[in-house]
Amino acid sequence: MGKKVFIVSSTLRKNGNSEILAEAFAKGAREAGNEVVKIDLREKELKFCTGCMYCADGKKCVLDDFVNGIYDEVQNSDVLVFATPVYYYSVSGQLKTFLDRLNPLYARKNRFKKVYLLASSADDDKSAMDGAITAVKGWTDCFDGVSLGGVVYGTGVEKAGEINATKAVSEAYETGKNV
């Protein structure tokens, strides 16, 4: 029996480079017999965390948007995958907001142990990804036994679709296949 893989694409650009990485990862994971759920944040209403700590009991967020409906699914996934364009050397604002909204998971018994980052940037130096890695690792470090399983670096791509001419797409596919 395969694993349950939950993928979050945080680009607001349809067919953007990080979304292409997410699709390649999903394809590889499905072909390997895993169950894959993928959400695109651009299609969702995502409210900002207010820091009220209503969620500290692990049940739900006081804000009324789609996030309350996915806590159980995220909690019961084996693998989490976050795809993001790199803006100003970090994750997109959409992904950061989404990670903040996952706060109710801290009080729950989560199944996931591995988190993967799929990132694209116009900068062609891998070090441009360091801030994004730090952001995701900072989130994973808050959970006992959870670690960053890997990073796919989609560097040197700016226009939507440019990533198709790089090896990052096949790396995302292979990473998904071997998850």
Overview of this protein structure:
The chain is an alpha/beta fold and 179 residues long. It has one domain (4-177): Rossmann fold, CATH 3.40.50. The protein contains five helices and five strands. The chain has helices at residues 17-31, 71-75, 93-101, 130-140, 168-177; strands spanning 4-9, 35-40, 79-85, 114-120, 147-154. The chain has a five-stranded parallel beta sheet with strand order 2-1-3-4-5, sandwiched between helices. Helix 1 packs parallel to helix 5. The two termini are 13 Å apart. The mean pLDDT is 96.
Condensed summary:
The chain has 179 residues and is α/β, with parallel strands linked by helices. Helix content is 28%, strand content 19%. The chain has a single domain, classed as Flavodoxin domain (Rossmann fold), CATH 3.40.50.360.
Spell out the blueprint of helices and strands.
Layout: E1 4-9, H1 17-31, E2 35-40, H2 71-75, E3 79-85, H3 93-101, E4 114-120, H4 130-140, E5 147-154, H5 168-177
Parallel strand pairs: 1-2, 1-3, 3-4, 4-5
Label this structure with key terms.
179 residues, alpha/beta, Rossmann fold, five-stranded parallel beta sheet, 5 strands, 28% helix
Q: State the total count of DSSP E strands.
A: 5
CATH architecture: 3-Layer(aba) Sandwich
- Give me the CATH superfamily: Flavodoxin domain
In percent, how helical is the residue content?
25-40%
Average pLDDT confidence is 96
| Tally of helical segments | 5
Distance between the termini: 13 Å
| Coarse morphology | globular
The structure class reads alpha/beta
